[in-house]
Amino acid sequence: MNDQPENLPEGSNDPKFIAADEQSPKGPINWNALAESRIQAAQQEGKFQSLPGFGKPIPGIDNVHDEQWWIREKLRREQLELLPPALAIAREVERFWLALDRLATEQAVRDAVDEMNQKIRAAHYSSAPGPPNRTMPLVIEDVLSRWQRTRPRPQA
């Protein structure tokens, strides 16, 4: 004779499958109560304490609901930008000026200016919608003189 209640999956001897309503195991299962009892049992066993993020606030829980949050999160995580070419190249030129003093040699500066000018020209020829591209190619002599004025001098 099988002493297993009728509402348990066949072959299940696991006591976790016992219905939450212990008084009437042959009646319909109260799924909400069953789920809640299993969650409480797992909490008592400490199964949730080793999860990543345990005890930490949920990031963005207080932010305003944004239906495209997952797109923004993906772009942030992958460090991608969705800017029109004119704005993207303007931002890249700003970053170029900030990184200029880290270049060690005049040849490295020349190479970086050539690369930046190629990107600027490519943005000029882009047919993507957006604001007009007003970023002009960099003049190598101007960049070199600025680099010579702003770079850290080797100490003697």
TrEMBL record:
<feature type="domain" description="DnaJ homologue subfamily C member 28 conserved">
    <location>
        <begin position="34"/>
        <end position="95"/>
    </location>
</feature>
<dbReference type="InterPro" id="IPR018961">
    <property type="entry name" value="DnaJ_homolog_subfam-C_membr-28"/>
</dbReference>
<dbReference type="Pfam" id="PF09350">
    <property type="entry name" value="DJC28_CD"/>
</dbReference>
<protein>
    <recommendedName>
        <fullName>DnaJ homologue subfamily C member 28 conserved domain-containing protein</fullName>
    </recommendedName>
</protein>
<feature type="region of interest" description="Disordered">
    <location>
        <begin position="1"/>
        <end position="26"/>
    </location>
</feature>
